[in-house]
Amino acid sequence: MTSELRGKSAIVGTGHAGFGEAHGLTAYDVMAQSALAALGDAGLKMSDVDGLFCTMMEDSMPALMAAEYLGIQPRFMDGTMTGGSSFVNYLTSATMALEAGLCDVALIVYGSNQRTASGKLVTASRPPAYEAPYNPRYPISAYAMAAARHMHEYGTTREQLADVAVSARAWAQHNPEAFQRGPLTREDVLGARMVGDPLTVRDCCLVTDGGGAVVMVRADRARDFPKPPVYVLGSAAESSHRQISQMKDFTVTAARESGKRAFAAAGLSPEDIQAVELYDAFTINTILFLEDLGFCAKGEGGAFVEGGRIAPGGVLPVNTNGGGLSCVHPGMYGIFTIIEATRQIRGDAPGIQLNNVDLALAHGNGGVLSSQVTAILGSQATL
Amino acid sequence: MPNATAPDQIFQRALANSEILLPKCDDCGAFHFFPRVLCPHCHGAAISWERASGNGRVHTTTVVRQKPERGGDYNVCVIELDEGVRMMSRVEGIAPADVVIDMPVTAFVGEAEGAPAVLFKPVEG
Ligand SMILES: [Zn+2]
After folding, report:
1. A126 touches B at CB < 8 Å
2. In this predicted structure, what is the pLDDT of residue A301?
3. Nearest residue on chain A to B116, judged by CA atoms?
4. Residue in B closest to A137 by C-alpha
5. CA distances (Å), A153 to each of A257, A275, A291, B10, in order?
6. Nearest CB to B88; choose among A130, A197, A250
7. Per the CATH hierarchy, to which homologous superfamily does domain A138-185+234-382 belong?
8. What's the CATH number for A3-119+209-229?
9. Is B125's pLDDT higher than 90?
10. Torsion (CA) A334, A336, A338, A341 in degrees, nearest 10
11. Consecutive H or E run containing A180
């Protein structure tokens, strides 16, 4: 049975700012530029926003800071912090708030200046007490241990991991908005500096500045805006742990459950999806999520991504903007899975625009494979 | 403030005496780690403490690469103890890259970041 919320809300604007290096700007500056861009895309004004959905890396009350900066007094706010998945999670809460009449214009927004501010991950979160003494490097040590276990159980190879990065770069090379567009081979990835075995620096996402935003309204007025509306057909979340040492099965993420429920809510299955936008913080993520979301069987993710099968011209378009590995990764990437999925459906993707996309998937990951949130987005034709 | 029933204090006090205690649920009999005021399996609040067997296996592992002048490479791993609980730690006494999944290991109380900590070494023989 599909969800009562299927198709009840729509994205009518997307925007971004500060990709790459936003010299001299604060994280909140980049956030606000992204918000303005998305509202401009939707033909709306900042004063129309009465629902704010936001979290940032640097504060304990980022949503309040953002509202104050933007000069708005939202009547509904959600700042739930599940890491990089937060923004996909807000698709659910924004849909609920819109449908209940708690707000009329929902703004989901994020911004970061982590590259020019420090060159590394900025975070207000503290290392967990029972892990900190061993000095894991967050977040890479966690993902490296997941990759090691996947290789041990399923024979996944470093070459297959590398091919995820190579495919992401191949998409990015066509995207003028992408930060890294130079050539990248499997050998380049394998020969790059090892950071946390088995992952080299090229298995890791970029460290960039950047922000993104989407504007949502109720479906009944979604056709009154300049751009074609993109509907939320299904969205679902599941969280399994916070600390990597508490992850029950290092080869299976909660995306198995979030994906199953998002597809059920939309009344769709993986075969229906024409563009897949996954949170690829590390190359192992893409393999895990393709398996857990049902695009291939558990353990077959390595073979599934091998040799350009998820690159342009392959069997499944994955991370068509270049992903967090090659396009943009300002601390949290989740919002950009929504933006790229939306643009593929609208037909205005900045890089390779796939033909006639009606259905796309956006998947957010948060923490250390801790929070998984899946959303299925669709065109007017899919209602 | 010392508190004889505070889970973290019980664990840390034992470590300071070179002893590894694990919390165990009185209701369902399962061990858990990290220490807390309830059992994460059945949510019962009656918790006892038992001395750990110290036997375990490497569940997964990585090497944190670091320049020699900053201390060099080191191991970070997750160990599964025979009691069924997992904890982050490191295996000492062998090169970080020689730590492999499923390797049998034995716990000992060593030092990490200047405080007593559970560390592991390969089982001998
Ligand atoms: Zn219990």
Report:
1. no
2. 98
3. A133
4. B64
5. 21, 29, 14, 36
6. A130
7. Thiolase/Chalcone synthase (3.40.47.10)
8. 3.40.47.10
9. no
10. -130
11. none
Q: What pLDDT, in 10s, does the model give residues A109-158?
A: 999 999 999 876 677 777 889 999 999 999 999 999 999 999 999 999 99
With cut-offs at 50, 70 and 90, classify the pLDDT of residue A187: very high
Mean pLDDT of chain A: 97
Q: Which chain A residues in 242-281 lie under 8 Å from chain B, judged by CB atoms?
A: 243-246, 250
- Assembly ipTM: 0.97
Say yes or no: B73 and B32 in one domain.
no
Q: What is the DSSP letter of A252?
A: -
What percent of chain A is modeled with pLDDT above 90? 96
B16 exposed, middle or buried (CB, 10 Å; 0-12, 13-18, 19+)?
A: exposed
Q: How many Å apart are CA A164 and CA A85, to the nearest integer?
A: 20
Is residue B13 in some structural domain?
Answer: yes
A132 and B113 in contact by Cβ < 8 A?
A: yes
pTM over 0.90: yes
CA distance B117 to chain A (A): 8
What residue type is assigned to position A15 of the chain?
G
Residue A45 has pLDDT above 90, yes or no: yes
CA A236 – CA A234 distance, rounded (Å): 7
Peptide bond into A312 cis (omega under 30): no
